[in-house]
């Protein structure tokens, strides 16, 4: 597991496993957001199993499955609300961290400049440039 800090309070990573949870807790995270649909992964990594392990470690857990190429308004709203309600740093995961970066940038539209959101994700190799018009549109609301 490689944790990639987009901000001091929001990081992304590829798929986590139950054995990663102690390190996530030790790193100071308060909330884990699962952005990966169960249909993409083996049963031992499904949302319900990871929720049990994460919550047993004393961390919050939010399931917000994001389908690549089909991010919904509900996904964006759920990510924004989870981040806003977090009592400390947030770790969001998906297959590579890319979807967690995209849904984060969309959820932060209007709260941070679009260029900053895109540049922040680019530092970790996530290309959010194709989402610029969508981020701008959300920021204009």
From TrEMBL:
Any Pfam family matching the protein: BLH_phosphatase
InterPro entries, sorted = BLH_phosphatase-like (IPR005939), Prot-tyrosine_phosphatase-like (IPR029021), Rhodanese-like_dom_sf (IPR036873)
User: The Beta-lactamase hydrolase-like protein phosphatase-like domain covers which part of the protein?
Assistant: 3-110
In terms of NCBIfam families, this protein maps to: TIGR01244 family sulfur transferase
Designated name of the protein: Protein tyrosine phosphatase family protein
Q: Per the UniProt entry, what species is this protein from, by scientific name?
A: Albidovulum salinarum
């Amino acid at each position: 597991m490689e944790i990639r800090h987009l901000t001091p309070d929001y990081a992304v990573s590829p798929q986590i496993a139950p054995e990663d949870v102690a390190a996530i807790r030790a790193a100071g995270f308060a909330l884990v957001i699962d952005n990966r649909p169960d249909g993409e992964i083996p049963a031992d990594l499904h949302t319900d199993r990871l929720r049990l392990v994460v919550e047993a470690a004393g961390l919050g857990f939010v399931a917000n499955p994001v389908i690549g190429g089909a991010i919904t308004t509900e996904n964006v709203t759920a990510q924004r609300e989870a981040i806003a309600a977090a009592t400390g740093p947030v770790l969001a995961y998906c297959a590579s961290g890319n979807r967690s970066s995209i849904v984060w940038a969309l959820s932060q539209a209007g709260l941070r400049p679009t260029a900053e959101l895109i540049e922040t994700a680019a530092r970790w190799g996530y290309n959010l440039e194709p989402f610029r018009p969508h981020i701008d549109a959300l920021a204009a609301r």
